[in-house]
Amino acid sequence: MPLFHPLAVTDLRKTIKDAVVVTLEPLEGGDFHFIQGQYLTFRREINGTEIRRSYSICSGRNEGILRVGIKRVDGGAFSTWANTELEIGETLEAMEPMGRFHAPLEPERAKSYLGFAGGSGITPVLSILRTVLAEEPDSSFTLIYANKGVGTIMFRDEIEDLKNTYMERLGIVHILERDSQDMDLFTGMVTEDKCARLFDKWIDVQTADIAFICGPEPMMLGIAKALKSHGMREEQIKYELFTGNQPGKLERPATTMREKEATGTYELKATIDGSSRTIVARRDMSVLEAMLENSIDAPFACRAGVCSTCMCKLVEGEVEMVANHALEDYEVERGFVLACQSYPITNRIAVDYDSGVHADL
Ligand code: FES
């Protein structure tokens, strides 16, 4: 089964100067029904290099439309192209929706949600917010949205419209790093201390059922600490890391100590879509690099241990995962690994992409 499928660009709209909202229509193959909070991984050749880049879906599941937000990153080849050259009518190639930044919808319950977003981290949070408010009629949502200034607030008008539609059930707190607001508390960086003060006075964490956090890592860690010190349990918090270390920057992956020290070869058996192949690779190659070098069409996107697109199950042998920003401890305990970050410890390794990968574990 092909990993990538064609999608037509049916609409393009700037939400701020440096971010474009792209509406897509699947053309042929693939199942693009998504869960709120998931992302699409695109592929495109730029200057002879294949770029893969993941962008979160920003539309709600209830809207029956597939839409992603693409913020331009300094030096980012894909995001710059999408913001400056992409046109309506062009065809993009993307993998089916992926990602586990979501919770089951329960229309019969009245739940209280907290959503924290930093900058372009709003995209998956907006998808969740829209879906929850439409499909759980008794639930409420509080959005805490951090930006540099008013001019960088993505989806500002849409969020205002949602506020007018769901006046009783949607609360919004904008925190602006540079632009001052009426209260000091709403200006500056979103830190653990600022969150703690917000939770003391403005936001009731005790009655919240679940929190979604998406943004840069230091912000996410500060928010999570403050949530926990106000009574929220770890299992009530969902994370989606947005990192500046994007494959679109055309950077080479960092060389780890392992790669420098490793010599010789290892045997790798890979099972994808029911068929298995065994290859021999240099020990300084990650499991993903070994597969790609041998023309095995294994899924990947960020190559940085962030997105989980390359997640697979280690069914034989041992590996060292040099970075992991995507898998939970219990997933690692069950044998799941990130192929892009996994280097061999044993001489023979077997990985399986068909064992419950990307299902809700
Ligand atoms: Fe993103 Fe491996 S490709 S975590």
What do these coordinates show?
Residues 245-257 have low confidence and may be disordered. Strands 4-3-6-1-2-5 form a six-stranded antiparallel beta sheet. A five-stranded parallel beta sheet has the order 9-8-7-10-11, with helices on both faces. Helix 4 packs across helix 5. It is built from eight helices and 18 strands. The two termini are 23 Å apart. The chain has helices at 77-84, 122-135, 156-165, 192-201, 217-229, 257-261, 287-293, 329-333; strands at 5-16, 19-26, 39-46, 49-56, 66-71, 91-94, 112-118, 140-147, 170-176, 210-215, 237-241, 265-272, 275-282, 311-316, 319-321, 336-338, 342-344, 348-352. 20% of the residues lie in helices and 32% in strands. The protein has 361 residues and is an alpha/beta fold. Bound molecules: FE2/S2 (inorganic) cluster. FE2/S2 (inorganic) cluster binds at residues 300-303, 305-310, 326, 338, 340.
Précis, in short:
With 361 residues, the protein is an alpha/beta fold. Helix 4 crosses helix 5 (217-229).
